[in-house]
């Protein structure tokens, strides 16, 4: 660690209370990007973050525009500090919108009133992803305060529509491709393998969802008069879908081509008891696969989920045999598969599992392709080294069963630049769920790691 890095880390620590206060003030803004939540908090939050960026004197500060994206869309903020001679440039991404809080009675404390409890900060967006915004700002401030400027080139990209599929972002990035060149991209929107374990995520599964509708008879029938001699669409769907997956979501039909192998990883030995707790398994339920396959199933294998199912409404349906069923089926596929081909295979397998005469409509959503990266790029190693020092233990290269389309897009737009996936989520963070939280010590360690990394990109 050189003297400049030490000074920047000192400034980060001295100002930590104001970073924490900034994060809390961002969490207090209900920036839910889902309709019908109001858009005003999103605009107010963008203004607030923009003023933080302006105070750090970037060479360029703008809201990305494209002829295809309306001017009054939720802002995508872009800032650029030019690299000193010989230094690298890194693009830092985070998003300032959040998921809806859902049922307020499920929260221990109100979602938009951030509260500290037992070393964690609770509130909607603490972990996903306002911590990402706060960490980027804290690292930039630390360097500005310690040495009057940044040690490397930095580009900031903050969006406010990530949770609703990054509306317009791809168009904005393609229209502004000339602004984006960087030696590395850091997406701070993922998480750590566990509390205190610094983690770089090196693979994401792709995903798609298919809305299906099954129709059998002309209309519902009296279940007493006709039960036993009329086809039951609920039972048909249950049998068909059960033939496509095991009870734990693993696929039992073949995808078009075998997955090309994802990156090799060295993982801590999975702790089965811990994973039972994280999943929330009741007494008596056991994983039907060995502990060392737990993460593999989630990261490196496809899975199926029934995300919704409608076949009459509980409490409102009479004693009828239904003739129509609707469901949304989620599909996740690992690196090496084409998610659109896999989705077609799913629909085909469902078609085959149903009698020919059952009417089946299937409408796929927009898909996200799987993504994977290696671990040996020099800048990946540099980031891993800075993280290991900040956390005081070796970095884990982990997979993630979820999907971040942006990783794939940056891979395409900036070939050769490693995409580094970091973030403060941990298995207890409950992003998208009630009582979202982050571990405050990991929030600080992550900011230290990023501050150190900027210094190490100076040559
Ligand atoms: Zn996120």
Word description of this protein:
- The structure is a single chain.
- The chain has helices spanning 3-14, 16-27, 40-54, 126-147, 169-175, 223-226, 233-242, 272-279, 294-299, 339-353, 378-391, 405-413, 440-456, and strands at residues 60-63, 77-81, 89-95, 115-117, 120-122, 153-159, 184-188, 199-204, 206-215, 221-222, 303-310, 320-321, 324-333, 359-364, 371-372, 396-400, 419-422, 437-439.
- The chain is α+β, with helices and mostly antiparallel strands and 459 residues long.
- It has two domains: 3-204 and 370-456, Aminopeptidase (3-Layer(aba) Sandwich), CATH 3.40.630; 206-261 and 296-364, Alpha-Beta Plaits, CATH 3.30.70.
- Strands 1-2-6-3-7-17 form a six-stranded mixed β-sheet, sandwiched between helices. A four-stranded antiparallel β-sheet has the order 11-13-9-14. Strands 4-5-18 form a three-stranded antiparallel β-sheet.
- Strand 4 and strand 5 (120-122) form a beta hairpin.
- Helix 2 (16-27) runs antiparallel to helix 4 and helix 11 packs across helix 13 (440-456).
- The longest helix is centred in the N-terminal third of the chain and has 22 residues, at 126-147.
- Zinc ion binds at residues 95, 128-129, 162, 189.
């Amino acid at each position: 660690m050189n003297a400049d890095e030490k000074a920047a880390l000192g400034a980060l620590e001295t100002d930590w209370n104001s970073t924490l206060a900034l994060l809390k003030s961002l969490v207090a803004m209900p920036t839910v990007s889902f309709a019908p939540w109001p858009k005003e908090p999103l605009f107010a939050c963008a203004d607030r973050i923009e003023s933080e960026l302006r105070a750090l004197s970037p060479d360029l500060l703008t809201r990305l525009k494209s002829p295809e994206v309306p001017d009054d869309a939720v802002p995508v903020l872009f800032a650029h500090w030019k690299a000193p001679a010989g230094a690298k440039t890194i693009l830092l991404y985070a998003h300032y919108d959040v998921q809806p809080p859902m049922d307020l009675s499920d929260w221990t404390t109100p979602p938009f009133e951030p509260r500290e409890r037992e070393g964690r900060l609770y509130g909607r967006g603490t972990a996903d992803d306002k911590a990402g915004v706060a960490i980027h700002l804290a690292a930039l401030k630390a360097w500005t305060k310690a040495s009057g400027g940044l040690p490397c080139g930095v580009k900031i990209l903050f969006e406010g529509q990530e949770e609703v599929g990054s509306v317009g972002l791809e168009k904005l990035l393609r229209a502004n491709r000339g602004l984006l060149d960087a030696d590395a991209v850091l997406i701070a929107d993922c998480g750590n393998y566990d509390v205190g374990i610094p983690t770089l995520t090196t693979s994401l599964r792709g995903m798609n969802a298919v809305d299906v509708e099954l129709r059998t008879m002309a209309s519902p029938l009296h279940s007493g008069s006709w039960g036993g001699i009329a086809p039951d669409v609920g039972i048909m769907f249950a049998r068909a879908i059960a033939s496509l997956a095991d009870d734990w979501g693993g696929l039992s039909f073949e995808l078009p081509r075998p997955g090309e192998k994802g990156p090799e990883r060295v993982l801590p030995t999975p702790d089965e008891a811990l994973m039972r707790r994280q999943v929330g398994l009741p007494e008596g339920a056991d994983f039907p696969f060995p502990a060392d396959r737990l993460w593999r199933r989630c990261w490196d294998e496809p899975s199926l989920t029934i995300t919704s199912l409608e076949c009459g409404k509980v409490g409102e349906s009479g004693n009828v045999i239904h003739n129509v069923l609707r469901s949304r089926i989620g599909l996740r596929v690992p690196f090496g598969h084409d998610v659109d081909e896999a989705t077609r295979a799913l629909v085909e397998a469902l078609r085959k599992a149903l009698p020919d005469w059952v009417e089946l409509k299937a409408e796929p959503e927009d898909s996200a392709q799987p993504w994977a990266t290696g671990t040996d790029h020099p800048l990946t190693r540099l980031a891993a080294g800075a993280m290991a020092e900040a956390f005081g233990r070796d970095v884990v290269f982990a997979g993630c069963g979820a999907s971040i389309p942006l990783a794939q897009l940056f891979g395409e737009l900036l070939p050769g630049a490693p995409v580094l996936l970091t973030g403060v989520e941990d298995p207890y963070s409950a992003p998208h769920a009630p009582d979202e939280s982050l571990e405050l010590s990991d929030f600080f360690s992550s900011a230290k790691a990023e501050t150190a990394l900027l210094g190490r990109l100076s040559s």
